[in-house]
Amino acid sequence: MSRRKMIYEGKAKILYEGPEPGTLVAYFKDDATAFNAQKKAVLEGKGVLNNRISEFIMGHLNALGVPTHFIRRLNMREQLVREVEIIPLEVVVRNVAAGSIAKKLGLTEGEALPRSIVEFYYKNDALEDPMVSEEHITAFNWAATQDIDDMIAMAVRVNDILSGMFLAVGIRLIDFKLEFGRIYDQNDNMRIILADEISPDSCRLWDAETGEKMDKDRFRRDLGNVTEAYAEVARRLGIMKDNAPATNDEGES
Ligand code: TMP
Fold it and tell me: Is 120 a pocket residue for ligand 1 (Cβ < 6 Å)?
């Protein structure tokens, strides 16, 4: 698959050593998992689509001044990113009730929330990513109060940008998950930037007119046509010319 040294293998991506210090190559797999990997499948073409969609979104955010780890796409399944020290949190932003918040608080899926809500989860598979408060985050030293403020500010800005971007192509951004990492300059000053991916694996995206799900809930809930829905998201964003499943690799760069 690749001659590069593998740094880390996650559920949907593999990270390889990058061409220069401080860089990594992220390889997008076709593997899909849900419910902490209790449910697994290979969805042919998903990795290609998520690489392209994440490139598009991260590129857009970079251009608008939201710092991200994304540098450039290398080929169909790989992108060059900055190496970060991952903060062990999943930051979820919700605009509309769905998924775990609907279940936990007895809300109807599709009900608008009184305002956008930012939540934190501790990234730990063995513990099934429990929800945590700012108190837990600072007490266990996962991040400082200032870091939390920075992450919330970036998450809210990403929500504003993405909500508009998706609505313009007839898609409602229901909720999404972000991950952040730390980078250090020559003087050891630390800065937090957006990391990981933003794709239909990490967002809930509903067709604005029909309410049809265009995200990983199609896999979680066995609704079928998962990659077709991801391809439709890509097509609407103007990334893919048609919605034929993209499976060919361009080869390595
Ligand atoms: P939830 O409703 O299951 O808490 O999910 C909220 C959002 O976060 C949804 O867009 C899916 C995304 N998400 C992930 O990206 N990874 C995860 O492990 C989980 C649980 C949710």
Answer: no
Report the C-alpha gap between 24 and 204 in whole angstroms.
27
Instruction: Work out the pLDDT band at 252, boundaries 50, 70, 90.
Output: very low
Gap from CA of 189 to ligand 1 centroid (Å): 31
111 and 71 within one domain = no
Are 92 and 77 in the same domain?
A: no
- Give the position, in ligand 1's atom list, of the atom nearest the Cα of 174: 10
Q: What CATH number corresponds to the domain at position 18? A: 3.30.200.20
Cα separation, 47 vs 78, in Å, equals 9
Count CA atoms within 13 Å of residue 6 on its CB side: 8
Same structural domain, 45 and 98: no
Q: Which of 162, 202, 203 to mutate to test the pocket of ligand 1 (most atoms within 8 A of CB)?
A: 202
- Calculate mean pLDDT across residues 111-118: 98
1 lies in a domain?
A: no
Q: What is the model's pTM?
A: 0.94
pLDDT at 249 over 60: no
Out of 33, 104, 119, 177, mutate this one to test ligand 1's pocket (max ligand atoms within 8 Å of CB): namely: 177
pLDDT digits (tens, 9 = 90+) for 217-242: 999 999 999 999 999 999 999 997 65
Nearest CA to ligand 1 atom 14: 202
Answer whether 99 contacts ligand 1 (Cβ < 6 A): yes
Domain carrying residue 16: 6-84+225-236
Same domain, 76 and 93: no
pLDDT by residue (tens digit) across 45-102? Answer: 999 999 999 999 999 999 999 999 999 999 999 999 999 999 999 999 999 999 999 9
Residues 230 and 203 in one domain: no
Q: How high is the mean pLDDT of the chain?
A: 95
Q: What is the DSSP string of 102-158?
A: HHHHTPPTTPEEEEEEEEEEE--GGGT--EE-HHHHHHTTSS-HHHHHHHHHHHHHH
Residues 115 and 198 in one domain: yes
